[in-house]
Amino acid sequence: MSLSVGCRRHPRATGTSTIGTSCTNRHQCSIHWNRGGICRARLGIRARVPFNGMRLGGIGAVVVWWVSTAEDLRCDPPSLESMMPTNRATDRPLAAPTLHHTTFTTLRLDEMVEWYGVALGLYPAFHGEDAAWLTNDAANHRIALLSPPGLKHPVDKGHSTGIHHTAFEFETFDQWLNNYIRLRDRGITPFLYLDHGITMSVYYQDPDGNGVEIQVDCFGNWRDSSQWINSALEFAENPIGTWFDPEKLVEAREQGLTFQEIHEKARAGEYVPDEIPKDIFLPELY
Fold first, then answer.
1. Is residue 82 domain-resident?
2. Whether 13 contacts 40, CB under 8 Å
């Protein structure tokens, strides 16, 4: 005969067990395990259940037994899983992982390392002959660049499925706009410039033509911008946003306007560029 505390799979003909119950003859039995898996049923005695030589604190076990005499029994000790309730919440991880890095293949490894350093302050944690790992914060890397043999340039990259861009965020409007000016003065200019409502964003292309968004949160914190994107009819009706000319933002700040004032005027269409891009596709570099 075999018993398993907390398990009702064994038929009554051979015996079963439960917690906190007595047998039909009102005989209460306790069960003791040793490390060899030998258990002993004793009629009329109630005790806590030790598991593999350890006591499970406060758990009282009563065995429902279908014989009237005590005997030695060999049985399997109970598993902790059998004594725990089943958790049905398995449709997503209880602790979600954090987005860590993006990896690109490239035929311009050194150019890519230099560009990401100039544009975003990413420096190489390691820069080899055919690969580099770049970071600009506490992470070991945020961008990985691989240049294995046999690579080919993409065909019609802008109209092919895949990643359109990666995005990096400044904490303040002044940091963001100052970075635009710094890159402009180095001859690096964006090909898209949009006020999305949640962010003001300028979009660049790295030497391989991958899109890179540099943004600032229009609400100053993710909690409020998350609530807005989730509930604002304005965003639902126009998720792409409003075009602006970044040079007009520079002029507005020089005139003393605040970030909030500039953002509101941009959303109202007061800083529309003279020439609006025809679409949001990545320009073809090949």
1. no
2. no
